[in-house]
Amino acid sequence: MRSPPVILASARVDLTEMTPSDAPEAFALNADPEVVRYTGDGPFASVEAAREFLTAYPDFRAYGYGRWAMRRREDGVMLGWCGLKYHPDTRQTDLGYRLHRRYWGQGYATEAARACLEYGFWRLDLRSIIAEVMAANLASIRVLEKCGLSPVASIVYEGQPGLLYSIDRPSSRLRLVK
Q: Which residues of 6-21 are buried (b: 16+ CB within 10 A; e: fewer)?
């Protein structure tokens, strides 16, 4: 089966729309308790439940962007997901990512997150992008800070102490992707 078209890319990662064919990977990703430890999400009940979620995922149709499948360019393996999510209630866009544990610590999240920020600022014309993170999630905090986001407030995130991060669009088009 062919992969969906690449929406944006970095040196090692292609980001594509998630499709129902990604259901086994989405199921496996959320089935790992360490992966979802700081997310507030639980596992899907089944691969079919993951497929139904991906089939009904409204963000691309409603807002033109969302969470994208993160695929390693060299072989198309799905590493996890990364992307931007619009929250109509706050009129803010947040950056999020999730990777299979075997790909942690290899720079994929930072690389994909930088590509998403650049896309958000220069293709979507966003003025700022936020991220919410549990305060205990030090690895995710490192990714956000490497991408230039700064903490702006303490929050409660999924019932836990958290931090709100933010980044404003640079005044000139400095590449965030390195």
A: ebbbbebbbbbbbeee
For the chain, 178 residues long, the average pLDDT of each consecutive 10-residue run is 82 95 96 94 95 94 94 96 96 97 97 97 96 97 98 96 96 58
Please give the C-alpha separations between residue 171 and each of 86, 119, 167, 168, in angstroms, as whole numbers: 22, 15, 12, 9
- Give the Cα separation of 67 and 177 in Å (integer): 18
CB atoms inside a 10 Å sphere around CB 99? 22
Q: What are phi and psi of 150, to 5 degrees?
A: -125, 145
What Rg value do the Cα atoms of the chain yield, rounded? 15
Whole-structure pTM value: 0.92
Contact status, residue 15 vs residue 112, Cβ threshold 8 Å: yes
SS3 159: coil
Which residue stretches of 14-136 are H helix? 23-31, 47-56, 59-63, 108-122
Instruction: Give the containing element (helix H, strand E) for 151.
Output: strand 150-157
User: The tokens of 17 are what?
Assistant: 């729309």
